[in-house]
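[User] Could I get a sequence and structure tokens?

[Assistant]
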Amino acid sequence: MAAWGTITMGRMAIGRMDEWPAWQRWGALVLAWALYIGGFWLLFATHGLAVRGLALLVLLAGLLLLVYASKAVLNERVRSIDRWQMRAALPAFLVYILLALYVLPLVDQITTPWLKAAAALSPMAPLLFVAWVMVRYVNRCDEMERRQQLEAAGVAVLVVGLLGMSLGLLSAAKLVVIDGTFALLMVLPALAVVYGLACVLAKWRHRAR
């Protein structure tokens, strides 16, 4: 009972993060990014199962904290629709990481073409589910939020597209050497990061008005 009460109080405290002093809210945001990036680095820089399991927990904790902290720095509280998005998207993201870590490395050992293609494309299943979650989330937002989401998506496409074109031109001029497979794999994560930052900037601009 005591442990459950502690967990409940912790959830209430993080749910009211918008009431924290500014330095605490910004500190939580920095900590969230540190956990998120550090968890990713540990996942792909190590091969031990125990360390990778710990890294996955750190990554998910960073993602969860990032949702609350990014809202809190805008003096907003996480709503029921935001909690629904987390409950739906985080397990799918977990499945994606597990498939990328433990299924993709087995592709080279598969000789049957259709099985090889299925294994290679298996991480797309949870990503498609996350895309459906995002579409449903945007459809349940109000008109102003939909406009902000649309602006952020446009900014993300332009920034990543221009960056990709710039790297392609530099590669054609033999000034940089780019791994094409790695570049393609980084397109979606880059879009997600720029999209998230653009959403925050769009909300800041709206509040400034």
